[in-house]
Specification:
By secondary structure, this protein is of the alpha+beta class. Helix 3 runs antiparallel to helix 6.
């Protein structure tokens, strides 16, 4: 009888303070002896069964190559679509390049001008200019000859007393002036055959080199408007359409090279000590057929308490280490980023 209510207590309900495993199950089995035999048989089968194979859970990760241009502009040409396979050097996209083409033409013109100035400093005066100087020199020599004759005549007349000394002095001054003019033109003729001074030549060559580097920058900016594939790869995503404006450095598309596919899985702390870089593991996935061999390329230096992607509740709250393994390029096409994997160690290196 229930003392509080006076109602009878069912025989099959244990008191609140009686343990379930020590009261209910023994009495229940005692009243159903056939069930005890069944439970014993199940326990024996479980004990004799094989242990589950050693392995870990993981997923496929992709190291994508985001292709962009350091120079922005309108997207004029898109030569690929998502899912296409490209080879190294294939054209991917092209941006509007009118401004860069104009800058290149300007730089080429400036370079031509500075090169001409630099070359001009290494030459003398033109032949016609030299001919003018030579003609002036001939005229000056003729005038000097006349002045010489006039001075000699004045000297004789002074000696005979027909003219004053002042007339002889004037004739001598005219002769000296004519001779000086001859000397001036002779020097001008020698200078006409000389190049510019070394300092002027160096300055002109420096300006030409500066113009050459400006043209080099223009060529580089123009080349960046067209981006080729850096390696054989799969076009994973395309982020822009033709006609849209792309900012400098903003990816237009992403590529997944065969070497960018890898497996990431998580190994408990009790098992990570048996792994080493260079060791081979087998990757299994739905629909992949035989295990795909992969070589361990990285073992994380620090642990994680929970992997970022959970495929099994048994992995929760366990201390695990991230391990990365790279499949052979020929097998990489069989894997897809985000695909769940079952990873197990291989006894030997695959052939």
């Amino acid at each position: 009888m229930n003392k509080a209510s006076g109602a009878p207590t069912p025989a099959s309900t244990p008191p609140d303070d009686e343990p379930m495993t020590e009261s209910v199950f023994p009495r229940f089995i005692h009243r159903a002896p056939g069930l005890a035999a069944v439970l014993a048989l199940v326990a024996g089968l479980l004990a004799c069964g094989e242990a589950p194979p050693a392995g870990w859970s993981g997923y496929v990760e992709g190291d994508y190559v985001h292709v962009s241009s350091p120079v922005g502009g309108r997207l004029d040409t898109l030569a690929v679509r998502a899912g296409d396979r490209v080879r190294q050097g294939d054209a991917l996209f092209a941006l509007d390049a009118q401004a860069e083409q104009a800058a290149q033409a300007e730089a080429q013109a400036r370079l031509a001008g500075t090169l001409a100035q630099a070359a001009n400093t290494t030459k003398g005066r033109r032949s016609d200019e030299v001919a003018v100087t030579r003609a002036q020199l001939a005229q000056a020599r003729a005038q000097a000859g006349l002045a010489q004759t006039a001075w000699a005549r004045q000297r004789d007349l002074v000696a005979k007393g027909f003219v004053s000394q002042a007339s002889q002095d004037a004739a001598k001054a005219a002769l000296d002036q004519a001779n000086a003019r001859v000397a001036e033109l002779q020097a001008a003729l020698r200078v006409a055959a000389l190049p510019a001074r070394s300092d002027e030549t160096d300055a002109a060559e420096a300006q030409a080199e500066a113009a050459r580097q400006v043209l080099r920058q223009s060529d580089w900016r123009l080349a960046q408007k067209q981006q080729p594939a850096p390696a054989d790869a799969l076009v994973a995503e395309v982020f822009f359409r033709v006609g849209e404006t792309v900012a400098p450095g903003q990816p237009v598309l992403s590529l997944l090279p065969p070497g960018g596919v890898k497996a990431r899985f998580y190994v408990p702390e009790t098992e990570v000590g048996a792994l080493a870089t260079g060791q081979w593991v087998g990757l299994r996935c739905d629909g992949c057929g035989e295990a795909i061999p992969a070589r361990i390329v990285r073992i994380a230096s620090g642990p994680e308490f929970t992997p970022p992607v959970i495929y099994s509740n048994a992995q929760r709250a366990r201390l695990v280490f991230l391990v990365e393994a790279a499949p052979r390029p020929a097998d990489a096409n069989r894997l897809h980023p985000g695909q769940p994997l079952d990873v197990s160690p291989l006894a030997q290196e695959p052939k």
